[in-house]
Structure prediction request, 504 residues.
Amino acid sequence: MRHEKVQQQLSAFLEGDLAPRQRARLEAHLSECEACAAELRALRRTVEMLRGLPAPEPPPRLAETVCVRVRDEGARRGLRERLGGFASALFGGPWLAPLGAAAVGAALFLSLSGPESAPEAPQAGPAGAVRVAEAAGRGTAQFTASPPGTRRSGPKHTLLASTAPPERGSGGSTPPPLAECLVASRASDPSERAAASAQRETCARWYAWMVGLASQDAAAFIQELDRLPASERAEWLARLSEFARRSGSAPLLARELRAAPDPRAPAIAVHFERGAPATR
Amino acid sequence: VSVLGVTAMAQQLLDQGTDLVTSDADGDPDLPLVERWRSGDVGAFEALVRLHQRRVFRLLLRMLGSREEAEDVAQETFLNLHRHGQRFRSEARFSTFVYRVAVNAALNRRRSLGRGRARLEGLAVRQAAGDDLPEGPRDPEASAAGREVQDRVQGALRRLPASLRAALVLYDIEGLPYGEISRVLGVAEGTVKSRIHRARRALRDELREFVNAAEPPDPGDCDA
Prediction:
């Protein structure tokens, strides 16, 4: 009997997988061949050592962590749906469909895209930080948040939406307040309506984008808040939390912010927990 | 990157999923919970996680060598299950499906590890073996020796080619029958047996000093 054949059969022999005739032949061989018998002992010992590895207890928090993440994912999925629906209900108008897409896009496509440097930011992007790059001829756009005029090594946020990205209103230093959007949606004069429509769109894109950002990356959200003029931050937070509350996402955002390591995060989370004053 | 990679990988494998259809599911004890989960009961999914977490974690620890990584990939495994659960075919055992998602997440994780991680892995292996020891060693010397052996076994496992390691862990540690391993790995039973045998021999070579093995005999006749 050849060693090579014996070697191939040893594992099966250990498991009792050999047919009776094969088994008898192998046993006869092993009783005469010390080398093969030693090999069988070594293999058996190897299996014993392997099976003797201690059975580890899973970390006590494993199931709990999974369950929290599953519930969070459910909440995010609900948020995506609600953001689209809420934007429709709140604003209405001819730009409704693209806005819905933008809002859903904000939640869906906001993603970390790696540590490479972000492109130079334009001077007058929203919150001083949005770069607009129109995708050629397809009505799509990609915009990237990054600190104004700087390059950084951290992750950058890329948002793909089926419409133009949020842009700062032409005259104001802050995005249009929510209340103005609501008033504007009832404007009757055609020229007023056109102006209001643009304002509504800017407003809605901003709220949706920021809420989407907060739900995905609380640290980046805080970074965006930081770029706003200090005097406007509280007002902005009040409106964002109002938007979040109406879209049903406030508890999720509060939880994300509570979990963020930034020391300012808890104070910001409070806005989403208790809600800011309603529209003024 | 790894999380996205794992998700993409799971998606790809779940898309294939047809060979999970077997007649093996008769009497699957998980089926009532699986049905409740698929009808929207998140609590049922949580119960499934608690039922399967021990074996998923054990499998991943032995596949990956580090508790931290095993925990990370275990979380991804269950999240992938939840995201893609509708692809589970109840003709197969749910536990087979769980193993399959976990093994693929582990294989994908290994591929995504860069070379920079290799140095840290040695430490991770020691940690993985050591963390599992019962607390309060009564005989420090025996305990240290036992720990060294465990370190070596885990280290040897880690150096096995991933496909061999998966088959070996599923058979010798998880105790799955050949047929189920064949469904988890998507290969024929004969291939499973051959991988187990090759893996054991490779492990025996690595652990030679502990198993008192002589040099393997020449592949000639015994009497030659």
About this structure: Residues 1-24, 114-139 of chain B have pLDDT under 50 and may be disordered. Chain B touches chain A through 56 residues (CB under 8 Å). DSSP finds eleven helices and no strands in chain B. The first helix of chain B runs from residue 2 to 16.
